[in-house]
Amino acid sequence: MTEPLILKPTLHEKIWGGTALRDVYGLDIPSETTGEAWVISGHPNGVVSVINGKYAGKSVAQLWHDEPQLFANKDVERPFPLLVKILDAHQDLSVQVHPDDQYAKAHAGELGKTESWYILAAKPGATIYYGHTATDKAAFDQAVDEGDWDHLLQKVPVKAGDFFYVPSGTLHALGEGVLTLETQQSSDVTYRVYDFDRVDAKTGQKRDLHLADAKNVTSVPFVPEKPVQIVSNVGDLTMTNLVSAPYFNVVKWEIAGNATLEAVAPYTLATVVDGELDLIVDGVTYHLNKAASFILPNDVQTWQLDGEATLLTTTPGPQSL
């Protein structure tokens, strides 16, 4: 019998975190400063395991290596390539940048980190930091050295439903009051550029900055990528293709009724971000509430959806296969 892999998230406390992951998504947060739920992950810093069926108790990383047929994985030595998180920016995150694969491998032994943000909710007036104003590297380095953040950083207003593609090399940060689903390469390499001079309540110290690495990897000038969104329908399902990129493809599913779908990739990752629905695979019904995340592995070639819900789904791009 084929079946989906329904997952249990791991929760991470952050200096900038809050309680929205509990208040909005019903997750069992460890403290009042919980910033991240890693809902689909094979990364060792956030082990996510299956809670149903024959693979119950197995982590995504274990299955990637031990059951490669589930992902049509032809190289068990490489890590599971994708990671999906829900982030609660109760305060501004640090302004940061991530390296590409080549730099990350040489300096951190990891994948690089290209990511994307789907804004789930945003308080009135909320913003993100997205890119910078420097026209050449000398100007960028000078602004960083002088701490001229007001002139260097670009702020963009955001609302629920907005989508941003954030390739490696992009200077960025979520702003206070933003709840986001992040799809990314499976990497935990971050170079912190500016942290608003705040002090960690637990350590009494400011957090480390990584200015040399940040200068090395930040793209100058900043040229935002704005993917064209394509909408299609299957039954009572509306699918909005948010981005088709080298490492991942992100598609929003909005179901209001029922639909039957067929696989278009070796595997599909999905998170219910609103509402609830039934997922029917091989004649078995799985009821999924908000925040539920699952993987449709390679042996699931067709499935049905029934309910009223919004899901964010991810399939691997060509550089992740």
UniProtKB/TrEMBL annotation:
Kind of enzyme, top EC level? isomerase
Keyword Ubl conjugation assigned: no
Example GO BP? carbohydrate metabolic process
List, alphabetically, the Gene3D superfamilies matched: Jelly Rolls (2.60.120.10)
What the entry lists under InterPro entries is as follows: Carb_Metab_Reg_Kinase/Isom, Man6P_Isoase-1, Man6P_isomerase_Firm_short, MPI_cupin_dom, PMI_typeI_cat, RmlC-like_jellyroll, RmlC_Cupin_sf
Reaction equation(s) it catalyzes: D-mannose 6-phosphate = D-fructose 6-phosphate
Domain Mannose-6-phosphate isomerase cupin intervals: 239-313
E.C. designation(s): 5.3.1.8
Cofactors demanded by this protein: Zn(2+)
Residue span(s) of domain Phosphomannose isomerase type I catalytic: 7-106
Question: What keyword terms does UniProt attach to this protein?
Answer: Isomerase, Metal-binding, Zinc
Which residues does the record give as Zn(2+) binding sites?
98, 115, 172
Q: Which domain of life is it from?
A: Bacteria
GO MF annotation terms: mannose-6-phosphate isomerase activity; zinc ion binding
Cofactor comment: Binds 1 zinc ion per subunit.
Annotated CDD domains? cupin_PMI_type_I_N_bac
Q: Write out the catalytic residues in the record.
A: 192
Q: Which family does it belong to?
A: Belongs to the mannose-6-phosphate isomerase type 1 family.
UniProt cross-references to NCBIfam families, sorted A to Z = manA
Q: What name goes with this protein?
A: Mannose-6-phosphate isomerase
Q: What is the lineage of its organism?
A: Bacteria, Bacillati, Bacillota, Bacilli, Lactobacillales
